[in-house]
Specification:
Blueprint lengths: L3 E5 L2 E4 H5 L5 E2 L4 E3 L1 H8 L14 E2 L8 E2 L1 H4 L3 E3 L5 E3 L4 H37 L10 H9 L2 H22 L17 E2 L6 H10 L3 E3 L2 E5 L22 E7 L7 E10 L13 E7 L7 E3 L2 H19 L8 H4 L10 H5 L4 H8 L27 H22 L5 H4 L21 H13 L12 H10 L2 H4 E5 L5 E5 L19 H8 L1
Parallel strand pairs: 4-9
Antiparallel strand pairs: 1-2, 3-4, 5-6, 7-8, 10-11, 11-12, 12-13, 13-14, 14-15, 16-17
Helix pairs in contact: 4-5, 4-6
Length: 518
């Protein structure tokens, strides 16, 4: 079926299954277009051979309803150079051959008619001029030269060969211009326009699976705010990061195995001595899941994996002492697989995706608790993003400090009276001012109007009209109270003397309302 190519978020399809479908076509850049439409159609069609869904190859014969998988179609369908497929039933392939034969015969007749017209024109031109000795021949030689033109002979030979080829294909065997579909095509990408925003948003919420060679990243994890242990100057270590990689097995000689790489929280440290958590890098072989590898850094985990590989090949003596590649190399620089790269953290595509995670900009803020900030190398955050990161970092630290000094219950925490004393004894305490008086004083100080110029001194009809002029959402809001259910609250302080309108009502049934109206 060919190699797997990326189709959409967490979706991969075989290149031949997509290329030989009706909808898919190739543009000038070698990109396969309309692959999603073919994939959606394949969900509802069943193969005529195995009777399973997912058949994307259909017969191009007239009124033929047969569909096939690519693997099933290799023995039941003929593939043509013009990207058409014909089944062996209902003589569709024979009808296609006859059409090709008629098309070639028509092309041959047109070529012969054109050649005859050209020869007649040459004869008329020679007859119009009087023959002389300088021309080197008579009319008969001119006609012979026009008919025996080498280019005309080549065209006749090509047409004869085409007719002979078509006839031999029709009589001898049915293999005309059918090709080996497994050799075609060598496409590299698929690109479809994203039209359904709702479907795209749903796929984004499910998460994206990244595949780069032998590496496959299933989960990018989350950024730990305010913890410098989960990043370095060149690499981010999101908590919950998970990836898989194919590499040499540490239990079976000359075999490959799937390794699951994870970044988990290190719970081995004593929380009484350490206030911040640290990352723990875990590598789990699929063929030895009972013995996972743990390391404080990615390089520590890789060194343990390397020691297992060296021990395996030394115990089995798979190589001589001077030819063992695992013992000759003191490091894995020649493999290009350091700890961060083995996990996939420094792969350019994965690194760019990690820099777009929420709260990633907080790792680039340098302070006393983060002396070695992360240096963005793919996408630099904007100044507004850095300002938001500062607020997020401050809010997180305040919440973290409150969580460390609180038991979660007001009765068990006790009354910390000494924490309320934030100023020295010599400083006088602030007096609490009534809200209404403070609002009236603020209005007087801001407007600096005389006492007779305020709204509270205007006539009641004018105050009422001014109150009705302002929108409801600007003055009032409905929210939940701390002592009862939902209620109506003001958004601004009401000065003394200002007019307010109090609304009182009663919830009644429609029948009671009709009776009261009478």
């Amino acid at each position: 079926c060919g190699r797997l190519v990326f189709a959409d978020y967490d979706q991969w399809v075989h290149v031949n299954c997509a290329f030989w479908s009706h909808e898919v076509y190739e543009d000038a850049y070698g990109t396969l277009i309309m692959c999603q439409k073919a994939r959606f159609r394949g969900r509802t069609t069943r193969c005529s051979v195995c009777h399973l869904s997912g058949a994307t190859l259909g017969c191009h014969g007239l009124r033929c309803q047969l569909n096939f998988h690519f693997t099933c179609a290799q023995t039941h369908v003929n593939f043509t150079l013009d990207k058409q497929t014909f089944c062996h039933q209902h003589d569709h392939w024979m009808a296609h051959i006859k059409k090709q034969q008629d098309r070639r015969r028509k092309k041959l007749d047109d070529a012969k008619a054109k050649l005859a017209a050209t020869a007649a024109a040459n004869i008329d031109g020679k007859l119009a001029r009087p023959p002389n000795d300088q021309d080197g021949g008579d009319v008969e030689e001119v006609v012979r030269a026009g008919i025996n033109d080498p280019r005309a002979i080549d065209d006749d030979n090509e047409d004869d060969e085409a007719v002979h080829l078509c006839v031999s294909e029709l009589v001898d065997s049915i293999c005309t211009d059918a090709i080996d579909a497994r050799l075609e095509p060598l496409r590299f990408v698929m690109s479809d326009p994203l039209t359904d925003k709702k479907a795209t948003k749903t796929q984004m919420t499910k998460g994206t699976c990244y595949r780069v060679g032998a590496l496959c990243v299933q989960n990018l994890g989350t950024i730990q705010v305010g913890n410098d242990s989960f990043h370095t100057r060149s690499t981010l270590y999101p908590l919950g990061y998970r990836s898989t990689r194919l590499f040499w097995s540490a239990t079976n000689v000359e075999q490959r195995a799937l390794y699951e790489c994870e970044i988990v929280n290190d719970n081995s440290h004593n929380k009484a001595t350490t206030t911040t958590s640290r990352p723990l890098f875990k590598i789990t072989p699929c063929d030895d899941m009972d013995n996972p590898i743990y390391g404080a850094t990615p390089n520590d985990a890789i060194h343990q994996l390397r020691s297992r590989l060296v021990g395996l090949y030394e115990s089995h003596r798979a190589f001589a002492g001077s030819t063992n590649p695992f013992t000759n190399r003191t490091s894995w620089y020649s493999y290009g697989l350091l700890g961060d790269h083995f996990f996939g953290l420094t792969v350019p595509v994965i690194g760019a995706a990690l820099e777009t995670l929420p709260y990633a900009a907080t790792t680039a803020l340098q302070d006393a608790q983060n002396p070695y900030p992360y240096a963005f190398c793919h996408t630099l955050p904007t100044p507004a993003m850095f300002e938001d990161a500062k607020h997020d970092l401050k809010r997180h630290r305040v919440a973290n400090a409150h969580a460390q000094h609180s038991s979660g219950c007001a009765r068990t925490d006790g009354f910390a009276w000494h924490k309320l004393k934030t100023k020295p004894d010599g400083v006088a305490k602030r007096r609490k001012v009534n809200v209404s008086k403070q609002a009236s004083n603020d209005d007087t100080n801001q407007t600096k109007q005389p006492a007779n110029g305020g709204m509270e001194n205007l006539p009641i009809p004018m105050q009422y009209r001014d109150l009705r002029r302002r929108p409801f959402s600007e003055r009032l809001e409905v929210r939940k109270s701390k002592i009862h259910g939902y209620g109506l609250f003001v958004k601004e302080a009401i000065a003394e003397g200002k007019m307010i309108v109090e609304y009182q009502g009663q919830a009644i049934r429609q029948k009671v309302a009709d009776m009261r109206e009478k």
